[in-house]
Amino acid sequence: MSFVITSYFTIDNAYAEVAHKFILPSLVNITPKLKSDIRGVTSRGNWGMDTSYKPEFLKIMLEHHKEDNIIFVDADAEILNYPSLFENIPEECIIAAYKLDRNSWYGREFPESERYEILSGTLFIRNCPQSMELLEEWIKRCKDNPKIWEQRILQKIISEKNIKVYELPMEYCRILTMPDGSEPIIACINPIVVHHQISRKLKHRKL
Fold first, then answer.
1. ∠ CA 156-162-166 to the nearest 5 degrees?
2. CA 161 to chain centre
3. In this structure, is residue 187 part of a structural domain?
């Protein structure tokens, strides 16, 4: 299967400008040309509810692009080079994501149960029935737990159901700054997908 780059942004607040500054123009000059489907949606009221829409959006993308695997990136991401790795995800993996080692990233020790974090800013979803089952469960739990971050819900489902995740390298989910705005302590020489983390500034603002 080929793949399609997907993302969404809310049309009635500042995230529309974010998408037009980052993800949309970054797709223009990639060679070979990337197939993409970037959509504007109506805000559900706040940042948490808008991010919890992610599994619903992914389900729509799977249903719409029946011949393609789905690559999701946040609207404040940029694709800098052709992401060829997505053509070679092992067949037994229905999902691929970057697993952040918080000990290394933050330079301090976390409890072992909190050390690793699945990041949903860049996701590969294989177009298959098993992925649809995963998304259905993710959608349900997001609705049942509206105050829990969607990527934490995804990580819990993956753990409970022992879902095999292909671990993307940091180059495919490179966060450009630490929460305080400083440079990351871990270098990344040739990033493919970078994340600007604009939501750190916007998510608590009334948009």
1. 90
2. 20
3. yes
Nearest to 192 by CA among 30, 16, 8, 9: 30
Strands 165-167 and 95-101: parallel
- For the stretch 28-55, pLDDT in tens is 989 999 999 999 999 998 999 999 999 9
Provide the CATH number for the domain around residue 54: 3.90.550.10
In the block, tokens 């819900």 appear at 153
Structural domain for 43, as ranges: 2-202
* Residue 117, H or E segment: strand 116-125
In this prediction, residue 199 has a pLDDT band, given cuts at 50, 70 and 90, of confident
Instruction: Give pTM, 2 decimals.
Output: 0.95
> Beta partners for 38?
7
Cα separation, 118 vs 142, whole angstroms:
16
Cα separations in angstroms, 84 against 50, 71, 93, 130, 200: 29, 12, 16, 23, 29
SS3 call for 5: strand
Give tens-digit pLDDT for 80-123. Answer: 999 999 999 999 999 999 999 999 999 999 999 999 999 999 99
